[in-house]
Protein backbone atom coordinates (compact mmCIF):
# COMPACT_ATOMS: atom_id res chain seq x y z
CA UNK A 1 0.00 0.00 0.00
CA UNK A 2 1.32 3.40 -0.99
CA UNK A 3 1.05 5.83 1.94
CA UNK A 4 0.69 9.56 1.36
CA UNK A 5 1.14 12.16 4.09
CA UNK A 6 -1.75 14.56 4.67
CA UNK A 7 0.21 17.63 3.49
CA UNK A 8 1.11 15.86 0.24
CA UNK A 9 -2.44 14.55 -0.26
CA UNK A 10 -3.72 18.12 0.13
CA UNK A 11 -1.24 19.34 -2.47
CA UNK A 12 -2.25 16.64 -4.98
CA UNK A 13 -5.94 17.53 -4.55
CA UNK A 14 -5.35 21.32 -4.45
CA UNK A 15 -7.10 21.62 -1.07
CA UNK A 16 -5.97 22.53 2.44
CA UNK A 17 -4.57 20.08 4.99
CA UNK A 18 -7.67 20.80 7.07
CA UNK A 19 -9.93 19.71 4.23
CA UNK A 20 -8.11 16.37 3.99
CA UNK A 21 -8.45 15.96 7.78
CA UNK A 22 -12.21 16.71 7.54
CA UNK A 23 -12.56 14.06 4.81
CA UNK A 24 -10.75 11.58 7.05
CA UNK A 25 -13.01 12.47 10.00
CA UNK A 26 -16.11 12.12 7.79
CA UNK A 27 -14.98 8.73 6.49
CA UNK A 28 -14.60 10.01 2.92
CA UNK A 29 -10.90 9.13 2.97
CA UNK A 30 -9.43 6.23 4.95
CA UNK A 31 -6.30 6.89 6.98
CA UNK A 32 -3.69 5.06 8.99
CA UNK A 33 -0.36 5.71 10.69
CA UNK A 34 3.12 5.35 9.19
CA UNK A 35 6.20 4.01 10.99
CA UNK A 36 6.75 7.44 12.57
CA UNK A 37 3.18 7.71 13.85
CA UNK A 38 2.14 10.34 11.30
CA UNK A 39 -1.33 10.16 9.78
CA UNK A 40 -1.24 8.94 6.17
CA UNK A 41 -3.84 8.06 3.55
CA UNK A 42 -3.87 5.14 1.15
CA UNK A 43 -2.50 6.13 -2.27
CA UNK A 44 -5.18 4.19 -4.18
CA UNK A 45 -7.99 5.75 -2.14
CA UNK A 46 -6.47 9.19 -2.76
CA UNK A 47 -6.17 8.55 -6.50
CA UNK A 48 -9.78 7.36 -6.64
CA UNK A 49 -10.96 10.48 -4.79
CA UNK A 50 -8.90 12.70 -7.11
CA UNK A 51 -10.34 11.01 -10.21
CA UNK A 52 -13.93 11.09 -8.94
CA UNK A 53 -13.69 14.77 -7.98
CA UNK A 54 -11.82 15.98 -11.06
CA UNK A 55 -13.61 18.90 -12.64
CA UNK A 56 -13.14 19.27 -16.36
CA UNK A 57 -15.59 20.94 -18.68
CA UNK A 58 -17.69 18.56 -20.75
CA UNK A 59 -16.99 18.21 -24.46
CA UNK A 60 -20.22 19.39 -26.07
CA UNK A 61 -18.91 19.31 -29.66
CA UNK A 62 -20.87 16.14 -30.47
CA UNK A 63 -18.02 14.89 -32.64
CA UNK A 64 -17.02 11.23 -32.32
CA UNK A 65 -13.27 10.53 -32.15
CA UNK A 66 -11.02 7.59 -31.48
CA UNK A 67 -8.74 9.61 -29.22
CA UNK A 68 -9.65 9.19 -25.56
CA UNK A 69 -7.42 11.87 -24.06
CA UNK A 70 -9.52 14.97 -24.63
CA UNK A 71 -9.29 18.06 -22.46
CA UNK A 72 -11.78 20.91 -22.76
CA UNK A 73 -10.47 24.25 -21.58
CA UNK A 74 -9.87 27.92 -22.17
CA UNK A 75 -7.09 29.36 -24.29
CA UNK A 76 -4.91 31.44 -21.98
CA UNK A 77 -2.10 32.50 -24.32
CA UNK A 78 -1.25 32.49 -28.01
CA UNK A 79 2.30 33.26 -29.18
CA UNK A 80 2.45 33.48 -32.95
CA UNK A 81 4.88 34.40 -35.72
CA UNK A 82 4.33 34.20 -39.47
CA UNK A 83 4.65 30.39 -39.67
CA UNK A 84 4.24 28.75 -36.24
CA UNK A 85 2.27 29.35 -33.05
CA UNK A 86 2.26 28.17 -29.45
CA UNK A 87 -1.16 27.87 -27.83
CA UNK A 88 -1.64 27.38 -24.09
CA UNK A 89 -4.93 25.95 -22.84
CA UNK A 90 -5.97 25.68 -19.19
CA UNK A 91 -8.00 22.47 -18.87
CA UNK A 92 -9.15 22.28 -15.27
CA UNK A 93 -5.96 21.97 -13.24
CA UNK A 94 -3.91 21.06 -16.31
CA UNK A 95 -1.98 23.41 -18.59
CA UNK A 96 -1.74 21.97 -22.10
CA UNK A 97 0.66 23.55 -24.60
CA UNK A 98 0.47 22.86 -28.32
CA UNK A 99 2.64 23.91 -31.23
CA UNK A 100 0.76 24.34 -34.49
CA UNK A 101 0.82 26.42 -37.63
CA UNK A 102 -0.18 30.07 -37.46
CA UNK A 103 -2.59 29.32 -40.29
CA UNK A 104 -4.39 26.73 -38.11
CA UNK A 105 -4.63 29.21 -35.23
CA UNK A 106 -6.23 31.78 -37.52
CA UNK A 107 -8.62 29.23 -39.09
CA UNK A 108 -9.72 27.96 -35.65
CA UNK A 109 -10.08 31.49 -34.27
CA UNK A 110 -7.92 30.65 -31.26
CA UNK A 111 -7.36 33.59 -28.96
CA UNK A 112 -7.12 34.08 -25.20
CA UNK A 113 -10.52 33.41 -23.67
CA UNK A 114 -11.79 31.12 -26.42
CA UNK A 115 -12.89 27.55 -25.68
CA UNK A 116 -10.72 24.81 -27.16
CA UNK A 117 -10.39 21.05 -26.88
CA UNK A 118 -6.89 19.58 -26.61
CA UNK A 119 -6.86 16.08 -28.10
CA UNK A 120 -3.76 14.08 -27.18
CA UNK A 121 -2.84 10.99 -29.16
CA UNK A 122 0.70 9.93 -28.38
CA UNK A 123 2.69 6.87 -29.40
CA UNK A 124 4.70 7.04 -26.21
CA UNK A 125 4.03 8.37 -22.76
CA UNK A 126 6.82 8.68 -20.22
CA UNK A 127 5.89 7.93 -16.62
CA UNK A 128 8.16 9.03 -13.77
CA UNK A 129 7.96 8.52 -10.03
CA UNK A 130 9.44 10.71 -7.31
CA UNK A 131 12.52 9.55 -5.43
CA UNK A 132 11.45 7.38 -2.51
CA UNK A 133 12.35 8.97 0.81
CA UNK A 134 13.47 6.71 3.62
How would you explain this protein's 3D organization?
Helix content is 27%, strand content 33%. The two termini are 15 Å apart. The protein is elongated, with a radius of gyration of 19 Å. The protein has helices at 6-13, 17-26, 43-53, 102-108, and strands at 3-5, 31-33, 39-42, 69-80, 84-91, 94-101, 115-120. It contains four helices and seven strands, in the order βααββαβββαβ. The strands form two sheets. Strands 6-5-4-7 form a four-stranded antiparallel sheet. A three-stranded antiparallel sheet has the order 1-3-2. Strand 2 and strand 3 form a beta hairpin. The chain is α+β, with helices and mostly antiparallel strands and 134 residues long.
Keywords:
3-stranded antiparallel sheet, single chain
Count of strand segments = 7
Structural class: alpha+beta
As a percent range, the share of helical residues equals 25-40%
Chain-averaged pLDDT: 85
Order of helices and strands: EHHEEHEEEHE
C-alpha-based Rg, rounded:
19 Å
Molecular shape: elongated
Low-confidence stretches: none
What's the arrangement of strands in the largest beta sheet?
6-5-4-7
Strand content: 25-35%
Counted by DSSP, the helix tally is 4
- What is the first-to-last residue Cα distance? 15 Å
Task: Characterize the main sheet.
Answer: 4 strands, antiparallel
